[in-house]
RNA sequence: GGUGAGAUAGUCAAGUGGCCAACGACGGCGGACUGUAAAUCCGCUCCCUUCGGGUUCAGAGGUUCGACUCCUCUUCUCACCA
């Protein structure tokens, strides 16, 4: 049992510091029923989660399965400073109201993965405000500037003469102090958080609370392209609140190779189950598409529902495999009658300009009621039509 | 504060008086193909109802028959010096 737990906990991790300690905690849980705490900090600046963020949450869910109590920390105090990690310039601060708002939508999304019974949501302003000037001062005596400057991002900024605010030095200290206050047994975070995570160990030692947290780091999830990290700004992400149909299509579009990475980091299936699947796909008894479909279904079910997932699958089948029309599409009332086809496409937002529309027609991408349009000058008479550009863009148009 | 370099379409990046709506790469879109919105191959990629017209190469002026390309000023970025 402990072995299984350990395997699942180690699954997909980038690095574990003090793995022995984790082993001891598990042993203690299975032999004495003693639970332990796992801390994970979240910055309330970005409440719009995508699958990349859920890698950490999945890991937390696994810990819950094996006896952990999660300390889900919302860094409302530290958000006022802004985490300097990976940043090349000082960040602007957030208002208290923004933070409160963000924290709220955070919780909604997070409990789709975590078990609320085994999760304690905490705000670090609770104890950091209580620290006071004296407490803060003594916190700063535990570390020195030289070591702080060893941090890669600080180092670069210092050398290039980019401003580093003193408050940014405080940030890792405060994050570490959270671990002191919460007496965390384990803290998990992304690989980019290494410095901050280790600070927790350092401070727990300095404050002599009798333990030093183990640290577990998860890799950054690759985006749909399989190369760059998943991020909103790169547009290669799957948001947790996206429509089921969108999610389904996006997951199916990843490469077969990337699929296994997603299985490892995102699926709730056990390693053994995945291993079996992997073998079956490789020996040809299971089609890779089936494996990908199952992954898509699992993920959609997690954020929506089983029915929604099944519907998305049916819909995808209909539109892409059978070349049929989707069940739902946007409807538009057109301005003229009769209307030039290129203009109609622009009005239905299927193409950004009439020039683009004409190119699409020339390339044979435009269909009305499933019929390909060859003639650029085509005029639409009054009636209701289904317009289509390419395989994926549909609209219902009404000509008066 | 001084000197030098630079600012080109979504991004990167060619072009240094007409052959430029502007090479190329990436991205995006479309077509073929496919288990897929993957991979591969092909095409398109400023706007305008089109063998034509309009507006572009940081901004404003100027030189010229003609400028993204030359000159002046302005703004911003970068490098070196102080």
Describe what this molecule looks like in 3D.
By secondary structure, this protein is of the alpha/beta class. The chain is built from 16 helices and 13 strands. The chain has helices at 2-10, 19-32, 51-65, 96-110, 125-140, 145-148, 152-159, 166-182, 194-206, 244-252, 256-266, 271-282, 288-303, 306-321, 341-347, 354-362; strands at residues 15-17, 36-42, 68-74, 119-123, 186-190, 214-218, 331-333, 339-340, 366-368, 371-372, 379-380, 383-389, 393-399. The strands form 3 sheets. A 6-stranded mixed beta sheet has the order 1-6-5-2-3-4, sandwiched between helices. It is elongated, with a radius of gyration of 26 Å. The structure holds one RNA strand of 82 nucleotides.
Keywords summarizing the entry:
single chain; 400 residues; alpha/beta; 5-stranded mixed beta sheet; 16 helices; 48% helix; RNA-binding
- Structural classification: alpha/beta
Main sheet specs: 6 strands, mixed
**Average predicted confidence as pLDDT:** 87
Please state the overall shape, judged from the principal axes of the Cα atoms.
elongated
Spans where pLDDT lies below 50 across 5 or more residues: none
Spatially, the strands of the biggest sheet line up as: 1-6-5-2-3-4
SSE string, helices as H and strands as E: HEHEHEHEHHHHEHEHHHHHEEHHEEEEE
The counted number of beta strands is 13
Tally of alpha and pi helices: 16
Radius of gyration: 26 Å
Tell me the β content.
5-15%
Q: What share of residues is helical?
A: 40-55%
First-residue to last-residue Cα separation: 69 Å
């Amino acid at each position: 049992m402990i072995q299984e737990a350990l395997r699942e906990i180690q699954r997909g991790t980038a690095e574990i510091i003090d793995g022995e300690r984790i082993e001891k905690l598990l042993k203690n849980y299975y032999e004495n029923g003693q639970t332990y705490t796992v801390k994970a900090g979240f910055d309330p600046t970005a409440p719009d989660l995508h699958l990349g963020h859920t890698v950490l949450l999945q890991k937390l869910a696994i810990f819950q399965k094996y006896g952990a109590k999660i300390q889900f920390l919302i860094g409302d105090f530290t958000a006022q400073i802004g985490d300097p990690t990976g940043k090349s310039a000082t960040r602007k601060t957030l208002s208290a109201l923004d933070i409160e708002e963000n924290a709220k939508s955070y919780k909604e999304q997070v409990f789709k993965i975590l078990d609320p019974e085994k999760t304690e949501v905490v705000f670090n302003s609770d104890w950091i405000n209580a620290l006071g000037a004296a407490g803060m001062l003594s916190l700063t005596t535990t570390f020195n500037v030289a070591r702080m400057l060893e941090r890669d991002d600080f180092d670069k900024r210092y050398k290039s003469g980019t401003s580093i605010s003193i408050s940014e030095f405080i940030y890792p200290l405060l994050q570490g102090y959270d671990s002191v206050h919460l007496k965390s047994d384990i803290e998990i975070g992304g690989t980019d958080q290494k410095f901050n995570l280790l600070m927790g160990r350092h401070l727990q030692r300095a404050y002599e609370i009798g333990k030093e947290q183990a640290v577990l780091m998860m890799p950054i999830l690759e985006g749909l392209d399989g190369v760059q990290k998943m991020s909103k700004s790169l547009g290669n992400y799957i948001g947790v609140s996206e429509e089921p149909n969108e999610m389904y299509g996006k997951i199916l579009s990843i490469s077969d190779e990337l699929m296994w990475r997603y299985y490892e980091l995102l699926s709730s299936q056990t390693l053994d189950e995945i291993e079996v699947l992997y073998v079956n796909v490789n020996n040809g008894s299971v089609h890779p598409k089936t494996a990908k479909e199952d992954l898509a279904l699992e993920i959609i079910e997690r954020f929506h529902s089983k029915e929604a997932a099944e519907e998305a699958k049916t819909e995808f089948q209909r539109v892409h495999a059978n070349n049929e029309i989707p069940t739902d599409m946007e409807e538009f009332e057109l301005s003229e009658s009769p209307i030039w086809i290129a203009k109609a496409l622009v009005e239905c937002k299927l193409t950004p300009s009439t020039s683009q529309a004409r190119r699409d027609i020339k390339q044979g991408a435009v269909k009305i009621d499933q019929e390909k349009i060859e003639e650029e000058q085509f005029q639409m008479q009054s009636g209701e039509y289904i317009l289509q550009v390419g395989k994926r863009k549909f609209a219902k148009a009404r000509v008066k």
